[in-house]
Amino acid sequence: MTRRTQQMGEFLREEVVDIIRSEIDDPRLGFWTVTRVEVLPDFRSARIYVSVLGTDGERKETLTALRGAAGFIRSHLKPRMRTRIIPDLDFRDDRSMEHAEEIDRTLRALRGEKGGEGGRSAPGGRFAEEEETLERTLPRASSPLERSDSPQRSAPLSPSPEETV
């Protein structure tokens, strides 16, 4: 992607989110997030990836509502854009968050198996053991807020009688 298409994608993402939130009042819209926008080099089409939190039915309803409102959103983009071409909007389902969650669950399961074998689990690992060793051997540095010997504020100094003359 060129710098120009990336800029256009970011601009479209911000504007489309604003239009959906402020102008569209559709009960089918669930909890959605526009994750990214890909603009084709000729600016005639834009793929808008939407992540929806909820069941598969809620996801389908939200995407159906957004696809149905694509023309409305496009017409509201016209006055906001300073380009001759307003891209066609293609809303697509983005399941990258679900994929990341699945990977996280798999990693947690592997950590649990490793921890059950008597070894240290992955969240701590070698670095946590080193940190524990350092905490035992080195004194803990205190912050200025924790010190009890910090100087107390005194009243402002008044000028001495010799300075006032």
CATH superfamily of the domain at 3-98: K homology (KH) domain
Mean pLDDT equals 80
Measured between the Cα atoms of the first and last residue, the distance is 76 Å
Summing up helix and strand content along with how strands pair, one would put the structural category as: alpha+beta
Beta-strand percentage range: 5-15%
Number of strands: 3
CATH class of the domain at 3-98: Alpha Beta
Estimate percent helicity.
Answer: 40-55%
Poorly predicted residue ranges: 117-122
In terms of topology, how is this protein built?
Elements lengths: L2 H21 L7 E9 L5 E9 L2 H13 L1 H8 L10 E6 L2 H21 L8 H13 L23 H4 L1
Parallel strand pairs: 2-3
Antiparallel strand pairs: 1-2
Brief overview:
With 165 residues, this protein is of the alpha+beta class. The protein has helices at residues 3-23, 56-68, 70-77, 96-116, 125-137, 161-164; strands spanning 31-39, 45-53, 88-93.
